[in-house]
Specification:
Length: 450
Amino acid sequence: MRKKLAQILVVDDQEEILFSAKMILKKHFETIFTTNSPKKIISILSENDINVVLLDMNYRIGFEDGREGIHWLKEIKTLSPNTIVILMTAFGKIETAVEGIKIGAFDYVLKPWNNEKLIEVIDKAVAESRKTSKKTASEKTEKAEKKYFVGTSAKIKQAYSIAEKVARTDANVLILGENGTGKYVFAEFIHQHSERKNEPFVHVDLGSLSDNLFESELFGYAKGAFTDAKIDTAGRFENASNGTIFLDEIGNIPLHLQAKLLHVLQTKTVTRLGESKPRSLNVRVIAATNSDIKTEVKNKTFREDLLYRINTMEINLPSLRERKDDIVPMANFILEQIAEKYNQENWRFEENAASYLEKYPWKGNVREMENKIERALILAENNTISVMDLDILNFEEIQENDENPLSEMEKGAIEKALFKHNGNISKTAEELGLSRAALYRRIEKYDLKN
């Protein structure tokens, strides 16, 4: 008989009850936790995705009114609304159990229980847990229907067109592009426009995983697999079950770990550390990198067979330098999104900001733009963001030319900064992104010595 993939927590102050429940339930369900102290409920729920709690209603001798059970029922529903609670009570205390059902318990069982009845009730509770989780995910998706900025650039429109088409399939996708071009946004876009949109979207930054954490994080581990492995723990692939896993910065994986990842993708199974039995996977894989992955293949630092496995479809994202016409509209879109995040409205850029936004090099692409606009919104006054607020006065990036239409704007910005810092050259140069020597040259140029 195949066990159901579910995590059950049994809470009772009698060790014999816990032992008996675990022996019965572990034959039918994947993971069983037990505790004799209700005070441990919060930590267990916060560290694990518990589907069902089987909760006793009394914990202290002489106190058998079930009020403790009611208290912990409320705590569980507050901390983990999708966790289903089944109350355990002795015959004659049913009234309190019924009260518990009115405030959120799924059902109750009488002690001593009938084994078949217990399995039946928990089976229904697990099904309800999954249904509730999907409904919550769906509601969150509808509530936070994310807006995506496309723009008019031919390259970005082509990228979105490919993303829309591939989203309707289960094909693996490789997203290529410089840092900050929006690889995460595209992965999320594909997930949200797929049949898996109400299932998990799990992001893994492979670049931040050390070699010794790679397998335990991605594939999970069994209790006792290593020193700190206190409980059976699912990895990111299992957490993404029926949904999408986004493997960011895949080009950073060393060769010996690439082989392990390739095995998972080829077999569509994962084996937790400390176990020998593989678990089947139903996961859509999207990978991304800012490296020249094909050159890495030629240099034999990235496996060719792994590249073939992850790039059924390839999407190339352009840098902001390649989509200059989108810069100002994108900045306005981002400003609107960030203002909404802070529950504010009617924000705008100063009229002269557009020219500076277009001239600025944006080496960090969209991510840099988001960071600068968010910082500017926090610092600016009167709902208006100036060039100074944006911190994009990097004049070393702009050619010095007396006929440059930005000259007057540059002069004004320097005057404003000098006034702000009471003529302090060091502070003014720092704010404007200039060396002291470069600032002195401009002071001479614009005759600002007085």
